[in-house]
């Protein structure tokens, strides 16, 4: 049974690994290997996961101790990281995390959710009711990526 709960500091190592593996093994279908290495560098702790996840409303999908996915909501309605483990793709985990994020946004009286969705995540966010505002090119660690500015009015 998957439980959606808020991030705890001891989740950081699993979240870092989940992020790294998902980008390297799932997003590589839509981006080049050079792009995914820039996005998810070999040093999986390039980001201070505890600090960042604790500073937002980070929801994790906990499958009896194994983290199946996570998503971060900032108080202004921005959804930053949103990833499902490679073994939990297309089985409803993302939808459960998203529902928790949207419920928190409503509780915070946020009127608009917005994100920068990868090519890989674009269709998921569309299924959740988001619209594409624009396609954009972003540069990260020397690599240029296509992603989509998307939003949903609540």
Automatic annotation (TrEMBL):
The keyword Transferase applies. It comes from the Bacteria. Keywords: Transferase. InterPro entries: Acyl_CoA_acyltransferase, GNAT_dom, N-acetyltrans/Recomb-assoc. Transmembrane segments: none annotated. Residues 2-154 form the N-acetyltransferase domain. One of its GO terms (molecular function) is acyltransferase activity, transferring groups other than amino-acyl groups. PANTHER family: ACETYLTRANSFERASE (PTHR43451:SF1), ACETYLTRANSFERASE (GNAT) FAMILY PROTEIN (PTHR43451). This is Acetyltransferase, N-acetylglutamate synthase.
């Amino acid at each position: 049974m998957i439980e959606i709960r808020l991030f705890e500091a001891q989740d950081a190592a699993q979240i870092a690994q989940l992020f790294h593996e998902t980008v390297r093994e799932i997003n590589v279908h839509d981006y080049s290997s050079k792009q995914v290495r820039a996005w998810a560098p070999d040093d999986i702790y390039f980001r201070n996961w505890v600090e960042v996840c604790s500073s937002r409303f980070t929801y994790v999908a906990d499958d009896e101790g194994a983290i199946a996915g996570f998503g971060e909501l900032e108080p202004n309605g921005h959804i930053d990281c949103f990833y499902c483990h490679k073994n939990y793709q297309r089985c409803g985990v993302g939808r459960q995390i998203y529902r928790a994020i949207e419920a928190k946004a409503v509780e915070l009286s946020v009127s608009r959710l917005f994100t920068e969705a990868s090519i890989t995540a674009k269709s998921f966010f569309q299924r959740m009711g988001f619209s594409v505002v624009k396609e954009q090119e972003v540069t990260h660690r020397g690599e240029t990526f296509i992603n989509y500015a998307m939003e949903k009015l609540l």
